[in-house]
Design a protein that fits this description.
Blueprint (H helix, E strand, L loop, with lengths): L1 H14 L2 H16 L22 E3 L12 E4 L7 H11 L2 E5 L7 E5 L8 E6 L2 E6 L2 H18 L5 E5 L5 E7 L7 H13 L4 E7 L22 H13 L3 E8 L4 H4 L6 E3 L5 E6 L4 H15 L6 E5 L11 H4 L1 H11 L5 H16 L5 E5 L16 E4 L10 H6 L4 E3 L6 E3 L11 H7 L19 E9 L8 H20 L8 H11 L4
Parallel strand pairs: 2-3, 2-4, 4-6, 8-9, 8-18, 9-10, 10-13, 13-14, 14-15, 15-16, 16-18, 17-18
Antiparallel strand pairs: 1-7, 5-6, 5-7, 11-12
Helix pairs in contact: 1-2, 3-4, 5-6, 8-11, 13-14
Length: about 525
Amino acid sequence: MAAAASMSACGSGGGGSPDESKSLSASAAAEAAAPSPSPTYRLSSAPHTIPSVRRHEAARGPGWKPASGSGVVIARGSEGLADEGKLLAKELKIAYRGTAAARAGDVELAVSGGGVAESYTLTTSGGRVRINGPDEAGVFYGTRTLKQSLRADGKMPEGVVREVPDRPQRGLNLDIARKYYTPGWIEDRLREMADLKLNMLGLHFSDDQGFRIESTTHPEIVSKQHLSKAEVRRILALADQLHITVVPEIDSPGHLGAVLAVYPSLQLRNADGVPTKGAIDISQPASAKLVDELLREFAGLFKGRYWHLGGDEYQALVVSDPEASYPRLAELAVKKYGDKGRIQDLTTAWTNDRAAALRPFKRTPKVWNDGVFRDGVVQADKNLEIEYWTGRETGARPPVEYLDEGRPLVNLNDEYLYYVLGQPNNFVYPTGQRIYEQWTPLVLRGTKPVDQKYSKQILGGRLAVWGDFPNAQTQDEVARGIRLPLAAVAQKVWNPAKPSLNWSGFTALAAKVGGPA
């Protein structure tokens, strides 16, 4: 501009013709009105998030961050995304404008076209962000990527993120039977899980030490400290908004001590008449009637796709000679199934019958791996999903036996994923670093992975919190203790690639992107 001003002054000083002076003046005016040259942007880098994004197509541009006029809008035909839009607007402290045309500075959410469940595409271009996917869950996960990127780097980088989760089941398992957790604490864990793109919360609410949800069919079994059904409904409503499925578990035929304390006549007794801890007598019709009444009641409360039947650690089967220790069960097995009938067949039939009781509710039944046996007369229901947790138990089968049968498995490997309060029985609190650096969904038992050929049968994994010694930690200490292990699990079940960050970098990122909104 200084040069133009000098030329204009010189022209008016009498050195040139009037036409020349007019031309120079017009040139100066045009230069003054022209916009400044656009800055040259570097090619963008992938956003920093947990779990890390699977694919980012780099581009040149300033990226996006909220401005004073920014808002969240919903594309026409995608009105079901209102909850996602309102939540994101609140988190980013920008306006929510509902169904409206996107303007400069906006974030637009849309459900569009077919595709893989929970996938999404996030496009940052022209000063806007557009997140679309085949379902509401996928779009929601795109909003989590945007939120985390803003927390980590202050902006969403230019370009396109395309994501689909590696595993369909990703989450946390929580034992509220042995340790009571407040509704607010559980809701905080749901929010934490949602930001990590985790989609399943297992809720183990019945065990030897407590029955922790209000019951109308059997109020006599409920522990003094418990969740009311109204509190559970609020938890379930939040989970639904955050695209998290809650998987309830009433464990049987073992781990029923809280129920049997009220119904001692149904407790299993050995050959000497000694009661067996937590074990219900599966030979009595009244036992099945009681448990089925509870299953049906709570199937009306928990309406998600899955139900966990338990099936683990039935004490009649952990002794060296079950038939000698429990002759009455042995006699019944032979009577029902012939000379080859054993107590394990009665137990398998029990689990199959509980699955059948839930069939009208159209639930997918789950069981722990040590509740499904080899070489029995009675075969486990083919629809059972196996949740593999241990190789420690007597007769525990290796994972490949289930996989070779064609069964789907979910990984809760107690070597890496068991957070057992008080650390009994050689359990050690899991570390996020060990999960992050060593564990993958293929590592189902111990530290050795199964063959890659089984990968599609392994549906995912969950970190599990168990309350063996409930007072060993407060609920706030549990929250702090599981924060990094849960983040590490989220990374491994979402993105199968080797993480690009080392552990130090991962923990630094977790400190940036975690915490309250």
